[in-house]
Design brief:
By secondary structure, this protein is an alpha/beta fold. An 8-stranded parallel barrel has the order 1-2-4-5-6-7-8-9, surrounded by 6 helices. The longest helix has 20 residues. The chain starts with 7 loop residues before the first helix and ends with a helix.
Length: 338
């Protein structure tokens, strides 16, 4: 598949984080309806699954998702180069290497945050991937792991991957504790160090640096950009309150376009849902990503309840989504009448 060139440095002003079991192709399709400009990421796909396992279905995506990046997990340069080539051939606009995930399963494969201990190996991986594809190769990392001193470790890590040809980096502004904390705890317990990431921009002025971790609003994102960072990556807030983060992002963050609405996105999802069902899919595979669309609005509880209780039923289809929508419109019509 031929890649259409995007200005990914600009798109990366705001990106939605790669999140395992969350940012699948249905989630990304929904997010693209809300923002036409934010950079979207796949959940992590391991290089062995693609190269040794032949699991090319993991690369499936809709052309509407672009600009979209493939995140790979792995530590073997040759295998990552093959996986990167498969991703580029499938049409992804960017290939990203995961050096931030702290889960035991990922560590056992020498993937993710454990690679913060091996910057030379990461550099070899980046160089091999760069040689294999003509789309940007990027890295997502932590500020360090375990007892490492981030002030020392992070600059050395960045220097090595930049020398290898890394074109952009996203830094999760927390350490990862590889033993003693669960992946969930690693997203909350290690303290955030935004100032350290800011200092990295001073040390590497020509490197496009995005910041990740704990950012929960567009206002906070804009403050980071105003402070001199090149991009902001938002994870859980973009998933659980997608309309709050994405509906006005094109106007506020990118300075172009008009705001979208959750209601319009729901209506645009109906034909997508119909096509998915006709292909043998189930409604809940899509609607599980839509539960937070109306977070904080009148009727949101009814919207979630109808979808949560009904979407797994064998005959569930677009009509159920329209029924769930009635909880939003009915309550808001009533509020306007008052």
């Amino acid at each position: 598949m031929e890649n259409t060139r995007y200005n990914l440095d600009h798109s990366a002003r705001l990106s939605v984080a790669p999140m395992m079991d969350w940012t699948d192709r249905h989630c990304r399709y929904l997010h693209r309806l809300l923002s036409g400009r934010a950079l979207l990421y796949t959940e992590m796909v391991t290089a062995p699954a693609l190269v040794r396992g032949g699991a090319l279905h993991l690369l499936d995506h809709d052309t509407a998702e672009h600009p979209v990046a493939l995140q790979l997990g792995g530590s073997n340069p040759k295998e990552l180069a093959q996986a990167a080539r498969l991703g580029a051939d499938a049409g992804y606009d960017e290939i990203n290497l995961n050096c931030g995930c702290p889960s035991d399963r990922v560590q056992s494969g020498t993937f993710g945050a454990v690679l913060m201990r091996e910057p030379a190996r990461v550099a070899q991986c980046v160089r091999a991937m760069r040689d294999a594809v003509d789309v940007p190769v990027t890295v997502k990392c932590r500020i360090g792991v375990d007892e490492q001193d981030p002030e020392t470790v992070l600059p050395e890590f960045l220097a090595q991957i930049v020398a290898a040809g890394c074109e952009r980096v996203t830094i999760h502004a927390r350490k990862a504790w590889l033993k003693g904390l669960s992946p969930k705890e690693n997203r909350d317990i290690p303290p955030l160090d935004y100032d350290l990431v800011m200092r990295m921009k001073g040390l590497f002025p020509n490197l496009h640096i995005s910041i990740n971790g704990g950012i929960a609003s567009l206002t906070q994102a804009q403050e980071m950009l105003d402070a001199g960072l090149d991009g902001v990556m938002i994870g859980r807030a973009a998933y659980h309150q997608p309309a709050d983060i994405l509906c006005s992002a094109d106007r506020l963050i990118f300075g172009a376009g008009t705001d979208t609405t959750a209601e319009a996105a729901v209506m645009s999802m109906l034909p997508y849902i119909e096509a998915h069902l006709q292909g043998g899919g189930r409604l809940h595979q899509i609607t599980r990503h839509m539960l937070g669309l109306f977070a904080g609005r009148p009727g949101a509880r009814g919207w979630r309840r109808v979808l949560s209780e009904g979407a797994t039923l064998p005959d569930a289809g677009p009509a159920l989504v329209e029924t769930a929508m009635s909880h939003i419109t009915a309550l808001e019509d009533r509020a306007q009448a008052v």
